[in-house]
TrEMBL record:
Organism: Acacia crassicarpa (northern wattle)
Record's protein name: DUF674 domain-containing protein
Domain of life: Eukaryota
Matching InterPro entries: DUF674 (IPR007750)
Amino acid sequence: MESSSSSSKVSLKLLIDTNTERVLFAEASKEFIDFLFNLFRLPLGTVTRILAKDGMVGSLGKLYGSIEKLSDDYMKNPEQDKDILLKPSAPVISGYLLHASDDKNATTNSGASNLYMCAKRCSNVVTYAINTRCPSCGNGMAHPARFVGSNKNTTLVEEGGFVKGVVTYIVMDDLEVCPMSTISAITMMSKFHVKDITSLQEKVVELGMEEGIKLLKASLQCKNVLTSVFLKNMTI
């Protein structure tokens, strides 16, 4: 898989069985694997918002909508609690197709979340949610706290994702990932019981924001994720 001319998209090479109309597997490089792995860093509230609550399978969409509609009279801290629940900060790396949050408390590209403290510094407490009431004086905590040092998460981001870029990976239709080798490719042909090699076709597709959202949604609904996202309405 190679990066497309647009930095917001990556390309993915699919191996399609035209007889069964399914994706057997995809060849992918670092960018796509990092995108898949990064899905595990998205908070549940962020996933629900990205997928649009009405399109969620199950009851999470209804729960999300209930929080939105609930009157501030019933919230202990109405200035902050709804944003914490509905727009949680997420350590998402830029270029990974999905932007977890558009609010001002979102994690920056450096991997360090914004911390705030009381301007009077009357207590040794900090918060991720700006304007949280100080437990000592009651004023809004909006003074940026200085973050020093590093941790494993920020180091991971600075090094550029999760996997090495010199390897080509195989991604199965159900998103199982493994390093690609000639032996593994041959083994998979046997696993899929492919008898007619002429039915196999390679197709390169581009993955951008829209496809990323569809892939996230499909991963929560079915096991034939790549087929569901890329073969629907596709001319073979």
